[in-house]
């Protein structure tokens, strides 16, 4: 059995992940919210993360939290609370900068700094990384080797779809070794429908799709020949009352605010109907059966 066909009670365990960034830090708002102004925004990560941890605890779910170094610096208690609850702490970089916006040297500094800060804050090893906005692609052929040299064991940074802001549609859809350093790349999950890769990993698509379609996509992965689905979301998706960034374009606002009030009850359905675990425990060989 491959390392990623982890079975518990006859059912596969899928990977639940959360990208710990706030509403004003999303890439879609970059042109409207300067990083120098982040300190002036109402950071709602602490209360939203508490809500997520409560939901996970109530449903006996463990997850991976890809956390910004910015969050660890300003809200170290959030990071410690996540780790204390038994969840994996992984890196999301320091300030949510896309990989292709950095040189290899800048990227190296970013992933080293974020890993060191998260380890010092949480007191646990950090072996996983997720790029801001799925920004490892054809423009960053050096990225996986940089990560490997910085001490990471896996990345979950490629989305094998075509999208106007991200995506690498010709990339492998299964977990695979990337670069020369032996690091494991765990792509965002897609389903093949009529020859096209359809997003099946959560995020904005989970709010856009009808719930029954999302459930069908996940079950499509639960065949013996399949592998665990990688689901992701953000703390701000639990927060329909978050402040609005009114200066953003209609397209950006539509994507960001769509169906926010439906997200939490939909997530609850997923927590109840499927088994979920941490990326490191599922994909790095720890047997959960």
Could you describe the 3D structure shown?
The structure is a single chain. The chain is an alpha/beta fold. It has one domain (7-283): Glycoside hydrolase/deacetylase (TIM Barrel), CATH 3.20.20.370. The chain has helices spanning 45-58, 69-74, 76-84, 104-122, 143-149, 204-208, 211-220, 250-257, 260-273, 279-283; strands at 7-8, 11-20, 64-67, 88-91, 128-129, 154-155, 176-178, 183-185, 190-193, 196-199, 230-233, 275-277. The strands form three sheets. Strands 1, 2, 3, 4, 11 and 12 form a six-stranded mixed beta sheet that branches. Strands 5-6-8-7 form a four-stranded mixed beta sheet, with helices on one face. Strand 7 and strand 8 form a beta hairpin. The protein is globular. The two termini are 12 Å apart.
